[in-house]
Amino acid sequence: MSSASSSLLAWVWEAQTARYVNLALLSTYIWDWLLSLSDEFTAIQRCRSWSTILAYLLSRTGVVGSIFINFMIPIAPIEHCNSIFHLGTVLGAVASGATSFLFLYRIRAVYGRSMVITAVFGALWLAVAISGAAFVFLTSGTISPGPRRQCIVNKLRPESMFVLWVKGAYDTAVFVAISHRMASISRAKCASTTSPWSCARGKGLSQLCRDVLQDGQLYYFASVGTTLFAAIAIMLPINVGWRMIFSESGFPLDSSMACRVFRRVLLAPKNEEPEPGTSSPVLMTTFMNEPGYLYDDHEMCRDDSPAHATL
């Protein structure tokens, strides 16, 4: 078999594998979305911030649009190959920025709308958004060789790994800041016989505050795992198409888990109280105003005592 024929077969196999992977990602993500539609409608109705609602919807629709375009690229009109490919990367960048924006609101809530925290993490989020936009120019599509002409990935520059490191740094900073805030309060409430692990998991806080802490921990470890995997995949000495397939596989998971954390916070009932003999003196402004529920425009974690600690 000639080298040209071998190259053509490799392109065909790569394109088919990419379609199967994207079909699996798209099906799984849409299934997850359909299962949570009822909760999403309720959460959106209770959310009073249009920017947060917009970020949530952009995270959802951006992922679906990006994966769908990647799935359709092999059968796209070849005269618009690169334009269609860039549209997919733009939607992916929008979804990534929107997902990170949800956690910007989360950390502002945890720290009571602190101006310092808002400025620092707002700048970090802006870096995520800018690096995501730069990713569009670090990739491109082209037409495959041979008689079976179709759109394929042509370029994935090593510099695109920088985009993933920026996102990983942002996720890490959010994780450390929220965990430190929650765990420090938990340690103050823990008995001397309580293990450090229990304190780190939020013992002594209300159920809601433990959910805020533990959901953030779960999201972070899943997100950092997929980010590291994608960053390593970009540097592997394999064909650019395979590197693209591996690097995008964790993209829907980040969005799905971030949206789940967002919904869980907004749907928490008011009757969730701290453990007996404990309290949660954390005042966290947030973006919801629903009478009869735990969250309103002024507080996130209720405290039975009259005193609240605010940063």
UniProtKB/TrEMBL annotation:
Highest taxon, organism lineage: Eukaryota
DUF6533 domain residues: 20-63
Keywords of this entry: Membrane, Transmembrane, Transmembrane helix
Pfam families listed in its UniProt record: DUF6533 (PF20151)
Transmembrane segments: 20-37, 57-78, 84-104, 116-138, 218-238
Keyword DNA-binding recorded: no
InterPro entries: DUF6533
Parts forming coiled coils: none
Protein name listed in UniProt: DUF6533 domain-containing protein
